[in-house]
Amino acid sequence: MAVDTIAPAELVAPKKLKRESQLALMWRRFKRHQLAVVSLWIVVFFYLVAAFAEFLAPTDPAAYSARYTYAPPQGLQFIVATEDGGWAFQPHVNGYKTEVDPKAMRRSFVIDPEEIIPVQFFAPSKPYYLAGFIPMSVKFMGVENPRDPFYVLGADRLGRDMLSRLIHGTRISLSIGLAGVTLSLFFGIVIGGFAGYYGGWFDSAVMRVVEFIRSMPTIPLWLGLAAALPKDWTALQTYFAITIILSLIGWTELARVVRGRFLSLRTEDFVTAAQLDGASDWRIVTRHMVPSFTSHIIAAATLAIPGMILAETALSFLGLGLQPPIVSWGTLLQEAQNIRTLATAPWLLAPGVCVVIVILSLNFFGDGLRDAADPHGR
Prior knowledge:
The protein has a 4-stranded antiparallel sheet. The longest helix has about 35 residues, at about 160-200. By secondary structure, it is α+β, with helices and mostly antiparallel strands. Strand 2 and strand 3 (about 105-130) form a beta hairpin. It has 13 helices and 4 strands. The chain has helices at about 20-30, 35-50, 55, 160-200, 200-215, 220-225, 235-265, 270-275, 280-290, 295-315, 330-335, 340-345, 350-375; strands at about 75-80, 85-100, 105-130, 135-145.
């Protein structure tokens, strides 16, 4: 009987297993959640729009034209018919023609398919500053003749371009969400972390404050705090005040989660070892305990941003949050409060559509991130 022999090449040491970081493992699991991946790209798109608002907006959001009040959306088109019966690539919008309702004696605009207004990308414009400090004189798109009407998403009651106002409002609404969540994370981690780490009377006092804040009705609390802001404050001061107000309310949920995690972690061996090694309480909390559940904090922050955006939108819609001349999704939706206006200008609801898309995308993204951060998930 022949005896199997082992080749020398098979006697080599086994290959070392490739070690992946926690973020790499999270990303691998996250990619399996297709809806969360699509939502991630939608969120990235909106934040890119917010970052390059001045470049993407065709006009100044405050520029108005009384001649084109409530002008309907023109719609961007790319193909035009030629004289020989063919077609050619030419970005353009159609012009307007005016009609008068004989019963209501009201003027209205309708799209004139015979009038073609050429549109050019990377069109020259008046000098402006991108993000407040980068000088530029080019817009993403614009008409060749500045006097021609250009309302891709229509105009409001003052003849202001809705697309430009919507783009600039994206920056305000989304930045409030990020700024508010950042402050909420800081308060929640610090207060909840030390409450769980020390326990005792400090833990009891913090939890009573958390329970008191969470027991109060959210909307009346927002309205009361926002109404307390001085009326003579500038728009910038109001912006920061609303952000701080939302943060002071939004930290309680994360503080409860962090406090529960710290109660279970403070008896772990690595915490005891750090204490015996002489590490300070601040170092133990920030360098040992918080990083042990960073993935959960990231997921919680992602799921908290929609609440901040909705809070700002609701306050501004009710007239107690941001006010003109600041442009946000909430202030834009103030134009849509009138039923008669909506009947004649339904495009004023475009900010509401953006709110729904962003909120759903952030929630789906947060769900996928939370599943990916779960160490026991598949």
